[in-house]
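User: Predict the complex with iron/sulfur cluster.
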Amino acid sequence: MKSLTNRSKVVSDKKMTFMERIYIPAILKGMSITIRHFFSKKATINYPEQKREFSKVYRGQHVLKRDDLGRERCTACGLCAVACPAEAITMVAAERKPGEEHLYREEKYAAIYEINMLRCIFCGDCEDACPKEAIFLTDRIVASDTERKPFIYGKDILLEPLDPQQRIDISARQTEKVIQFKQNKGFAHNK
Ligand code: SF4
Ligand code: SF4
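Assistant: Here is the predicted structure with iron/sulfur cluster placed in the model:
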């Protein structure tokens, strides 16, 4: 019968030889491959005890930065959410009340700020879009979990601690030129 395609394979049904029937050569061949891999250099490491060196441009867990006085830099303008290609960022803005100037740098702040880490593709667009130097991606790894809910990161996780000793260092991914730009008090976002 003529086949409809040329994808069919002719399967041989020839009788097995004696050596093939006792399987020993095949077992020895398989064992030699196992032994070879047993002594070769491992491709894996014992994470988290051991960690690989990250690329200098690695982008990991975000941080919402405070300014030198400990005030939240984010003004809930929403530009990061608009720039986010994964639509991973949501926020609720609130107005700063008199007496809260030591908490929030601007007249408006993010009462709720959330990033869905399952949607995030760590592109860094939110960092680029932010006019207030408020959000940065860091070299920290987002911890794994077996449920979806823990991956909605709110301010309790994203906002950096008030204690100056526990601030999150974001300088690793910044070039010298960018650091100089961010220290220039001539620009509004650095004041
Ligand atoms: S890194 Fe990219 S995907 Fe993740 S929150 Fe920022 S803009 Fe969205
Ligand atoms: S992180 Fe930056 S861009 Fe996003 S809402 Fe806050 S100030 Fe605006």
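The two ends are 83 Å apart (CA to CA).
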